[in-house]
Design a protein that fits this description.
- The chain is mainly alpha-helical.
- It has one domain: Arc Repressor Mutant, subunit A (Orthogonal Bundle).
- It is 67% helix and 11% strand.
- It is built from six helices and three strands.
- It has a three-stranded antiparallel β-sheet.
- The radius of gyration is 19 Å and the shape is globular.
- The N and C termini lie far apart (51 Å).
Length: 132
């Protein structure tokens, strides 16, 4: 049996609570919006902190620093310090981060392709709620 044959069973976590909890913890680490946006931006190449902050958009310095620390801790991002005055710090995707970029890009493409459908659904829902 291949890994693909076993995918449905693994994904559903049938009877394996510990396995489900592990998957849930990992998904929580990698699926927040800032993580996805940072990985997507680093997919264009290494960035210094302030350039990354500009690229990502409305993210606070504190949240970006925390996101980068989490990504580094989990092996998605490397942090390189160049000993200059002041020191220069650059962030880049690791091999694991580049592997993760594939589903991140696919998700971003799906969102772009389906955003109009979601807008229609939200408007329809709002109209139904306003009537009833």
């Amino acid at each position: 049996m291949s890994a693909l044959d076993n995918l449905g069973e693994t994904a559903s976590c049938q009877g394996d609570t510990a396995h489900c909890e592990h998957i849930s913890r990992l998904l929580a680490r990698i699926s927040d919006k800032w993580t996805l946006l940072v990985v997507r931006m680093l997919g264009h190449g290494p960035r210094r902190f302030n350039a990354l902050r500009r690229d990502v958009g409305e993210i606070s310095q504190k949240v970006l620093a925390s996101t980068l620390r989490d990504l580094e801790e989990n092996g998605f991002v490397s942090r390189t310090v160049t000993p200059t005055t002041p020191p220069q710090v650059e962030y880049a995707l690791t091999d694991l981060g580049r592997d993760f970029l594939t589903p991140v890009k696919a998700l971003a493409e799906w969102v772009v392709a389906n955003s109009a459908r979601m807008d229609i659904a939200r408007n329809s829902y709002a109209e139904r709620r306003a009537v009833g």
